[in-house]
Specification:
Blueprint (H helix, E strand, L loop, with lengths): L2 E8 L3 H19 L3 E5 L4 H7 L5 H9 L2 E6 L14 H11 L4 E7 L12 H4 L3 E7 L9 E3 L4 E3 L5 H16 L4 E6 L5 H17 L4 E6 H10 L6 E4 L1 H15 L8 E3 L5 E3 L18 H13 L4 H16 L13 H17 L5
Parallel strand pairs: 1-2, 1-3, 3-12, 5-10, 8-9, 8-10
Antiparallel strand pairs: 4-5, 4-11, 6-7, 11-12
Helix pairs in contact: 1-10, 1-12, 6-7, 8-9, 10-11, 11-12
The structure holds nicotinamide-adenine-dinucleotide, 3-isopropylmalic acid and manganese (II) ion.
Length: about 350
């Protein structure tokens, strides 16, 4: 069986962390014969430089034909002044929209060896295990924008169908976990949030009555994520709130460099990327934390390629590398990106021999 992965490394540390993830996937493939093949394409700022377009048509066609897409990060100061419609970030939004990736799944767990790396007190974070399901193809990210000399607008719109489908994704996840779903909105102010709350309440009531559903306002949620993060199981929220809250989640885990994500729709390939950006401040120095990208590759193996044993082996290897304190600087360690990657691969061989070959 052959499984084709398109690699969109992007900009800044994107190429450094995706190279790490590809190296680890190669190592797994050698042991488990997953039949992986890879093709790299320019994306984001790199594609602007090469093709004057952050997401050229030939890259979109390659993505459509892939089994899964591994992405680094896009953007950087070099492209800060290009027109909004062709910024690196616009390419990323188009990728999500063209592939119908409406659900962005961002899990947060706190590794026991990293309790001290978190800014929060140990007793608050010991049992944190939550997943944010961020709506990814609607809301203010995709509304009409206007700009004059003296005024700018960004429209925020949601349809009932858009809220229904992401609610089902989140509720299905909650059903397979601890059965608690927290929906986050700003229903005391925004009409889109009132619609959001109504739809979530109806879908969960009709289709997932066994779940415990709560609604929280986003400002309070920002506080609860640092005061009682252990109380949450699955959180579902709209695009912009999900973007902001998940960087906060990453800080709880100890570093933005740790958190993976999967962006999925109903059909076609998913996109797997760490939630961090291109980190221009550390790019090119070989010090970026590759664990978020590597854990995104594990999500790719589980969700798009459906090889859960391989995903588990990879997650176990990262877990062990962290337990053994092979940590990059963002986590207070001294390991380079290459050393952290090698540490995962070294632990992978042990893990992989103990699991059944897929
Ligand atoms: P950022 O996430 O790139 O960096 C924020 C801070 O976290 C920086 O200090 C950075 O050094 C650190 N950091 C991030 N990832 C790290 C890693 N793997 N290892 C160690 N440290 C890490 O956010 P920013 O600086 O606000 O944005 C920079 C650019 O990235 C912008 O152009 C933004 O649009 C883009 N961005 C892209 C994506 C994406 O492509 N998915 C996501 C977020 C931001
Ligand atoms: C993310 C990023 C993107 C977003 C940007 C780069 C468009 O911050 O993936 O979290 O806001 O969705
Ligand atoms: Mn973000």
């Amino acid at each position: 069986m052959s499984r084709h992965i398109v690699v969109l490394a992007g900009d800044g540390i994107g190429p450094e962390v995706t190279a790490a993830a590809v190296e680890v996937l190669h190592a797994l493939d050698v042991r488990l014969h997953l039949g992986l093949s890879f093709a790299a394409h320019a994306f984001g700022g790199a594609a602007i430089d090469a093709y004057a377009d952050p997401f050229p048509d030939h890259v979109l066609s390659a993505c459509r034909k892939a089994d899964a897409i591994l992405l680094g990060a896009v953007g950087g100061p070099q492209w800060a002044n290009v027109a909004t419609a062709i910024r690196p970030e616009a390419g990323l939004l188009r990728l999500r929209s063209e592939l119908g990736l409406y659900a962005n799944i961002r899990p947060l767990q706190v590794h026991p060896a990293l309790i001290d790396a978190s800014p929060l007190k140990a007793e608050r974070i010991r049992d944190v295990d939550l997943i944010v399901v961020r709506e990814l193809t609607g809301g203010i990210y995709f509304g009409t924008r206007t700009r004059s000399e003296t005024r700018a607008t960004d429209e925020c719109a949601y349809t009932v169908a858009e809220v229904e489908r992401v609610t089902r994704t989140a509720a299905t996840l909650a059903r397979s976990r601890r059965g608690k779903l927290t929906s986050v909105d700003k229903a005391n102010v925004l009409e889109t949030s009132r619609l959001w709350r109504e739809v979530v309440t109806r879908v969960v009531g009709d289709e997932f009555p066994e779940l415990k559903l709560e609604h929280l306002l986003v400002d309070a949620m920002a506080m609860y994520l640092v005061s009682r993060p252990g109380d949450f199981d699955v959180i579902v929220t709209e695009n912009l709130f999900g973007d902001v809250l998940t960087d906060e989640c990453a800080a709880v885990s100890g570093s933005l460099g740790l958190m993976p994500s999967a962006s999925v729709g109903d059909v076609g390939p998913g996109v797997y990327e760490p939630i961090h950006g291109s980190a221009p401040d550390i790019a090119g120095r070989g010090v970026a934390n590759p664990y978020g990208a590597i854990l995104s590759a594990a999500m790719l193996l589980r969700q798009s390629l459906q090889v859960p044993a391989a995903a588990l082996a990879l997650e176990a290897a990262v877990h062990r590398a962290i337990t053994d304190r092979i940590l990059t600087r963002d986590l207070g360690g001294t390991a380079s990106t290459a050393e952290a990657t090698a540490a995962v691969i070294a632990r992978l061989s042990v893990a992989a021999t103990t699991i059944p070959v897929a």
